[in-house]
Amino acid sequence: MVADVSTCEASIARDRLADVLACIALVLLCLMPFWPVFLGEVLVPFEGLYLADAAFVAFRPPHVTWPMRFTGDLVLQMYPWRLFTTDGLAAGYIPLWNPYAGCGQSFIGNNQSALCNPTNLLLNLFLPAATGQTVFSLLTLIGACLFTYALTRSLRGPPSGAFLAAFTYGFGGFMFVWLGFPLAATAMWLPALLLATHRLALRPTAIRAVPVSITIGWQLVSGHLSASAQMLAFWGAFLCYEWIIYRRRRGVGWARGFVAYAALALLLGAGLGMPQLLPLRESFGLSSMSGAGRSGRSSEDPAEAARSALLGDGEFLREIALEEAALLVLPERHGNDAFGDYRQQRSYDNYWERSIYIGFLGLFAILVGLMLRPRTGHDRFFLWASLVVLGILLHLPILNSATYLPVLRYTNPGRLRFIFTLCGAVWLGLSVRAWFAPTRSGSRERVLIWLVALALSVLSGVLALSTLRAISQEWVPLLYHDRLLRLVKLFAPALVGLLVSLVLLLSALRWLSLRRAMGALVASRRGLLHLLRPR
Helices 118-126 and 129-154 sit at what angle, rounded to 10 degrees? Predict the structure, then answer.
């Protein structure tokens, strides 16, 4: 008995040490790509102003050569609004009205100004606007990673799996591309909300309802109401799942308490968000979207809407869906506008809006999940939630009806990418051990998992080759190191896939222990970050 207790205590101590080291590593990895910040630079693409606004084209300095077409919102909205806020606070007042837009408009009613965000308020009070924008972007990335790590660990994922989950969500296409925007600042809170809700489900008390309400309130004032609406809709699905799985074990008393505290948390969270929601309600009521009662992604015609909901978006499925699926594993399938070789698909959004990339490991985990088919626990929820949201993103039959649901009909369904990425990331963290220890048919299952990894690696390589053929002719004006970086970024997913295939093979042959295999996967993600570092 004494030996068992000491062994258990040693295991807990090792896990705590692993958690501390993993969180430190995540923070360092979040800061590493942005090392110029520590030399005095800022994460505000001022040079983009010379291309985003025709009035400044004639004044562009000779050294500004990057196309940077899609930096317009950062230099024309996000940074000027922060500068306007810092100037107002420095003068001793809160800028509620913006006299410079049109004939004047509500500044606090502009949701994306994020005037009521506590993090923004502190940064705008004590730091210059450019520095505040830089710190805010880094805090967003760090928060997304650490919250995802904590969520995966709370669901009994191993430290190495939680690390992979955190890396996948934080450095997935959505969060990384939208850094600096209120959209990422809002999406950052999704893992925190699910974590707080899970802890409430384990023990429904008033104290545990407080973090849920604070998280709901904070994300409501983070600057992107449509992302908040999508997040709360998904939160409702997670609440229902928690209620279903725990009600059988804990009885009616627990179920009533959980529902009551969750409802109380929602009300308190909405109350905390009211300083932003009430002015926004007035501004939104004057918008064209409010008048139409829908977003631009749905149809006004009832017959066409019903057909699209039940049979899927035909045009999207015919012309775009396959290319969208390719972006899951190859983020630069259509090029990169920072290098001038991005090819926007006809009538379908830009580089940012198509940030569905989840990484090789994330996509591989989902494909393996279709083989393993977990039947119980949170593994099943996050796997099937990722598949359902992916179906919505691809506008598949039946699933496309989510576009027309109340509340969601006002939002852009493509922005659900952050929910898809988080679900896939958490499933990756919870399932990674199963890759090395199949439970059903032993060696046959190991072979199938290895074949999936190898096939996905080959597919990534084929996509990279076809992409290279399509866009390489536009690389003529690029410098040598830029061309080399483009090649590395195109073929990095295939290289990581080959490494994963090798790790799985060595593990199956028992030439590599489980711990070392997991370490190799973590190392591959770190290597990918180095290869795909921002320009």
Answer: 150
